[in-house]
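Regression test case RT-17, inverse folding.

Input:
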């Protein structure tokens, strides 16, 4: 069945059926998708088949090309885009840098960002533009969330890009994307987002959200490997971005073989493939193709509803046990990421001795979690269930 068609009900996967595909998550609570997802058995099998084919010489590059275009279509469908608007990258940072470096900046232009809620990868790419005369305007967060009014006040007629994480990696709040998108539309600016903390877990619709560029990776909610990612660029922006790097696959040479040079008077591809350089990480492509098949068969809305319900239970339970839990300024900005503690520490321990004791108990019990900026961080996905939440809350209480 073509992946652009609606999935027939017979091909659907329930949350319970999907969970059984993740043996590691069934063996022990995996609540660390904000750092790294776990792999499903079909994902491992897909990688193994590709590598074995390479090993025994039966692999054909033509088959890999079909696989790649199928994955491109699957990701486009997941975010409500067109396949022609999707490029393959190696990670989120590369996607962000492609947009930043390819943009037609002029001295005096500016980009607006809120550093407090961003991962460093969505800061350095823009700071690097200062050498090209671009002003990086920073705004302060409000209650550890993006202050949409502050972002709008920072914009003017020379604002070319507003950038934000759709979901912050810590403390895990959604961005007020509707307000940001509206402000960008009024000024003709691009809204460029880091979506690595939500793609695959929360429903993303680039058209409905007004997103112009989106970068993500497959290692978290998309349940693939490190080393593969996606870049979405809206078609109306593609022709305005000039790739910094250029390779054979970036250029329109018709049906000519990839090894043929063709004319020196080259023409860029009219779609997002112009941003791609050389062959892809094919094991990563195989992994992502299998994992996205699972995600699409369960459905984005179903996964989001399931993950949010579990996160709400976890958040409420920790709070009832006396822990300080991060709460989004508005309920609509909450996510599958649950953080507890004070945002004043590092990535290895919190400043709260009681919370550090909980972290030790979680680790001893095999629970997967992380600590970021002094916050204990847990995050839910399709492979989690109520039993995981029960176990974590019992450990938090010291039971």
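Golden output:
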């Amino acid at each position: 069945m073509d992946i652009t068609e609606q999935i027939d009900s017979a091909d659907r996967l329930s949350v319970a059926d999907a969970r059984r595909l993740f043996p590691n998550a069934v063996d022990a609570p995996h609540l660390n998708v904000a750092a790294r997802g776990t792999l499903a058995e079909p994902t491992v099998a897909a990688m193994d088949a590709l590598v074995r084919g390479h090993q025994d010489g039966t692999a054909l590059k033509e088959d890999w090309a079909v696989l790649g275009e199928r994955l491109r279509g699957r990701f486009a469908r997941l975010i409500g885009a067109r396949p022609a608007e999707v490029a393959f990258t190696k990670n989120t940072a590369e996607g962000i840098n492609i947009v930043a470096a390819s943009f037609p900046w002029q001295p005096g232009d500016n980009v607006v960002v809120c550093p407090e809620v961003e991962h460093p990868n969505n800061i350095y790419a823009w700071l690097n533009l200062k050498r090209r005369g671009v002003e990086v305007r920073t705004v302060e967060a409000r209650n550890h969330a993006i202050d949409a009014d502050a972002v709008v006040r920072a914009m003017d007629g020379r604002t070319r890009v507003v950038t934000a994480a759709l979901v912050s990696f810590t403390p895990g709040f959604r961005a007020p994307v509707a307000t940001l998108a509206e402000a960008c539309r009024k000024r003709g600016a691009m809204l460029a987002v880091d979506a690595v903390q939500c793609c695959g877990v929360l429903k993303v619709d680039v058209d409905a959200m007004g997103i112009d560029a989106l970068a993500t990776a497959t290692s978290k909610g998309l349940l693939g490997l490190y080393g593969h990612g996606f870049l979405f660029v809206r078609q109306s922006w593609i022709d305005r971005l000039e790739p910094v790097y250029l390779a054979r696959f970036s250029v329109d040479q018709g049906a000519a073989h990839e090894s043929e040079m063709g004319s020196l008077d080259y023409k860029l591809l009219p779609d997002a493939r112009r941003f791609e350089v050389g062959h892809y990480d094919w094991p990563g492509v195989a992994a992502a193709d299998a994992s996205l098949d699972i995600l699409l068969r369960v459905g984005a809305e179903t996964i989001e509803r399931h993950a949010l319900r579990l996160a709400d239970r976890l958040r409420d339970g920790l709070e009832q046990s006396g822990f300080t839990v991060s709460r989004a300024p508005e309920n609509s900005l909450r996510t599958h990421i649950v953080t507890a503690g004070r945002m004043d520490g590092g990535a290895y321990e919190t400043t709260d001795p009681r919370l550090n004791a909980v972290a030790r108990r979680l680790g001893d019990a095999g629970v997967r979690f992380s600590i970021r900026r002094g916050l204990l961080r847990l995050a839910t996905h399709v492979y989690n269930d109520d039993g995981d939440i029960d176990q974590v809350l019992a450990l938090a209480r010291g039971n």
